[in-house]
Amino acid sequence: MNQIHRLLLIQVALLVSYSGITFAQSTLPGTLRVGAAKVDITPTKQELPASFLGVNDPIFSRAIVIDNGQEEIALVTVDIGGIADKTINSLVQKIGQDVKIPAKNILITATHTHSVPFGYSGDALEEKIINSIKAAKQKLQPARIGYGTGVSYLNVNRNLFDQKTHRWREGPDYEGISDKTVAVISFETLQGQPIAVYYNYAMHGVTMGMSDMVSGDAPGATSKYIEDTFDDAMVAVWSTGACGDQNPVYYQQTYDLREMRIREYATRGEDISNAMPPGGKGLDRTNPAVQKLMNQQKQLIASMGQFLGEEVMHVMRGMDRKETKARLYANQKTITLPGRKRLDTGRAGYAGTYADADSIPLKLGLVVIDDIALAWVNGEVFSAIGQRLKKESPYGHTMMVTLTNGFARSGYIPSDVAFSNYTFEVLSSSLMPGYAESGIVNGILDLMEDSKVKR
User: Fold this and answer.
1) Beta bridge partners of 200
2) In sequence order, what E strands does 190-272 have?
3) What pLDDT sits at residue 249?
4) How far apart are CA 335 and CA 364, in angstroms?
5) Coil, helix or strand for 76?
């Protein structure tokens, strides 16, 4: 055998070896099957703390399971303020055992409604969340998927520089950074009947937060409106966008109710004017002014649900390209960011003082469905970070899903530029300035780069 033949054989051997490795790492497109379900998780009166007066509207765990013959993905959203890491760890372990979906393939997102008791957890709640996934998996059927985006102006940047006091305060900043995108993934049968919709929007569910009543707030109202429109033949799953600095644009009733609570506390010699008024006391519900404001809040969440729901369905109707096969990919990682500890108090408007503190872990993850990238973070991320990620993402269809798979110890996660403003999110953040934005964006971009290798 001459030297040329030897070189050719070596090249062929290397090619075979490389091809084998690539194939082993690949996740190839497979025929889609999708199922969806929802389970009522409304707490009973006995499960509510004394500060809660009852239930305004029921809350749910909604789940979509996606299967392509090689991988299964679970997209779950729970009407809750946040889900603690301890609960998430328990859930993903049980889901792996009972439903056979691996931890990296599970997204459990909180709608971040402020009208469910923070810390609401326990075995009974976990069982209901798992049951929603089980029910969705049992309904798996051949399906096709579509993607589209729309626009809604229901959100607004909530950090306003007051020209009178020359201090930052919470208020609607119509010129502030705000992502108006409504991203929509639609799942339907091969005959065109809706199975589920997974939609992403960046807005806090805080409208009913002063009512001391259980509510899914605007996220729950939106999903209910969509589901009602389809006679409950499909499931509408909200996912929380980068809403760390985003409020509903119509929020005045909450400000008015806060002022009433502040004045009531002042009559008892307690100044909460630069603090978040606690719930459960400080409002006289026999007062006609209080009753009117609270009734208006109920009207507002119904209105926002209708308007946002209409935009989601408008996007669904405009989807032309729908696929019956898709590649499914999932991965996650943990990054560590420098931490700080605040040494003074005050909600907003003044510079805080800090000391160095333990570093803060943040969980990041990525789920890819066909050419759609769901990048997730377990914290409250500012809008500018989400927009930067979408701009730099190699996937043209990218959404950021926050408050997912845990509740980070960081508090709010401001963008780099936002740290120069004395807003309540910045002052309360446990993160050192200058690290979080690039840490999150670059960390997720690394996951995206790894996902490309897996093609």
Assistant:
1) 183, 239
2) 194-201, 213-214, 235-240, 246-248
3) 97
4) 7
5) strand
Q: β-strands 54-55, 213-214: how paired?
A: parallel
**Three-class DSSP category at 115:** coil
Q: Residue 47 is encoded by which pair of tokens?
A: 């499960």
Per-residue HEC secondary structure of 391-431 comes to HHCCCCEEEEECCECCCCCCCEECCCHHHHCCCHHHHHCCE
CB count, 10 Å around CB of 250? 16
Residues 6+ positions from 219 with CB-CB distance below 8 Å = 77, 79, 111, 112, 113, 205, 238, 240
Would the pLDDT of 16 be above 70? no
Q: Which residue has the tokens 């910045």?
A: 426
Residue 77 and residue 236 in contact, taking contact as beta carbons nearer than 8 Å: no
Residue 281: DSSP 8-state: S
Shortest CA distance to 79 belongs to which of 55, 113, 48, 108?
A: 113
Q: Rg for the chain (alpha carbons), in Å?
A: 23
User: Taking a C-beta distance cutoff of 8 angstroms, is the pair 377, 335 a contact?
Assistant: no
- Which residue type, as a one-letter code, is found at position 348? A
Residue type, 320: D
CA–CA distance, 84 with 86 (Å, rounded to integer): 5
Proportion of the chain in helix, strand, coil states, percent, rounded to 5? 35, 30, 35
pLDDT band at 280 (very low <50, low <70, confident <90, very high): low
pTM beyond 0.90: the answer is: yes
Best CA proximity match to 152, nearest among 198, 185, 200:
200
Exposed, middle or buried: residue 264 (CB in 10 Å: 0-12, 13-18, 19+)?
middle
**CA distances in angstroms from 295 to 131, 133, 282, 288, 405, listed in the order given:** 34, 35, 18, 10, 34
For the record, the structure tokens of 25 come out as: 């790492």
How is residue 435 annotated by DSSP?
S
User: Across-strand partners of 357?
Assistant: 339
Tokens of 297: 């809040």
Neighbouring CB atoms inside 10 A of 79's CB total: 30
List own/partner pairs for 265-268 with CB under 8 A and 24 or more apart: none
Helices (H), 26-113: 85-98
160-193 confidence digits (pLDDT tens):
998 888 899 999 999 999 999 999 999 999 999 9
Q: How many CB atoms lie within 10 A of CB 25?
A: 11
What is the predicted pLDDT for the residue at 9?
Answer: 35
Cα–Cα distance, 73 to 189 (Å, whole number): 18
